[in-house]
Design a protein that fits this description.
The protein has one helix and three strands, in the order E-E-H-E. The protein has 63 residues and is mainly beta.
Length: 63
């Protein structure tokens, strides 16, 4: 599903929204202040590769 991250130009709230069509992107509303003055922001994504000792392993040891 295409979930995008947005930032409200007024209150600076960063939030996610599910966008299924270009028309929906124009109608994204800030959940904090209710305004439609938002910008799409670049967000990071998880690649499934953990680099810390406290993170769960993504590899399988089944042989």
């Amino acid at each position: 599903m295409p979930i995008y991250e947005f930032r409200c130009k007024k209150c600076k709230k960063v939030f996610e929204s599910l966008i299924l069509s270009p028309k929906e992107e124009k109608n994204v509303t800030c959940p904090k202040c209710g305004l439609k003055t938002t910008d799409k922001v670049m967000s990071v994504f998880a690649d499934g590769k953990a680099n810390c000792s406290s993170c769960a392993s993504t590899s399988s040891s089944h042989s």
